[in-house]
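Lab notebook, bench 4. Still working through the backlog of constructs that have no structural model yet. Next entry is a single chain of 334 residues. Request: give me the structure tokens for it.
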Amino acid sequence: MENNDKQKVIFSGIQPSGVFTLGNYLGAIVNWNKLQHDHDCFYCIVDLHAMTVRTEPKDLRKRTKDSFALLLACGLDPDDNTIYVQSHVSAHAELAWILNCYTYMGELGRMTQFKEKSQRHNENINVGLFAYPSLMAADILLYQTNLVPVGADQKQHIELARDVANRFNSIYGDIFTIPDGFIPKEGARIMSLQEPSCKMSKSDDNINAYISLVDPIDVIVRKFKRAVTDSEGSIRFSPDKPGVSNLMNIYCAATGSTIEKMEADFSGKGYKELKEEVAESVVEVIRPIQEEFAKISADKGYLEGIMKKNAEKAAYRASRTLSKVKKKIGLLPR
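Model written out:
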């Protein structure tokens, strides 16, 4: 199904499994900001996805609200975008069940993230963990999405959404828009400060491995001082220097510089100076976000008002697709 709106529809979701990291911001949210004025954007706090791992109810509520406030603090405009909480739009869960009936066990079993999370949480390999790619497909397809900004590690899920949409369309006609993944060229993968072969993650057990957007300034500086480099001493971008290359990527993403310019600017400098300047560039980015986050979080009425308004906007758009799907598969209207 072709989207008839003048602007292309973009959907992206982020889990409230912890406070957003510098990697979330530079790798995803910065690009969301760039897209928001020229596209019809749906940005979702995917709290239903977070349920695949056991969490305290009060923690999930707080993290969901904090995640919403942080998106606003990072510059997303709630009037230009539809920023909402996934569980506030019941169509996500409804379409996910329907799509489960058009998704094959083998397809879900091949998902790399299912295999990895099953190993990490082998005491809780639940059906939700296995089937959450169907929910992700529902998230995307509900809004007749054209583009999904994703990291390279999420390409597999986009392919599944495309496969399921094509399968459904081949049976019932032109119902779903077939989405394409959009992978930014720069800042897509900010790596761990302690294990630069791994992506920076808010769920990392080592708190020195990631920078949280709400880390105190002195903590941010300290974490960069402890960042892994190597014994060579030269500041150059190379696959055999993952720690140094990661710091260079972070600096360029935070300042808008290029690797080539950075290598020239840092010629003759050591790792101590590199870490100090990277830390300073990140602090300049994070400080205004923290100030805005504190201001938004303190205004409960404002925050809850935006949540309600945007959930209603999202629910209206989602209901248009869900109604067509239900009619096509033979479910009786209410």
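Notes after review: The first strand starts at residue 9 and ends at 14. The first helix runs from residue 22 to 35. Flag for follow-up if needed.
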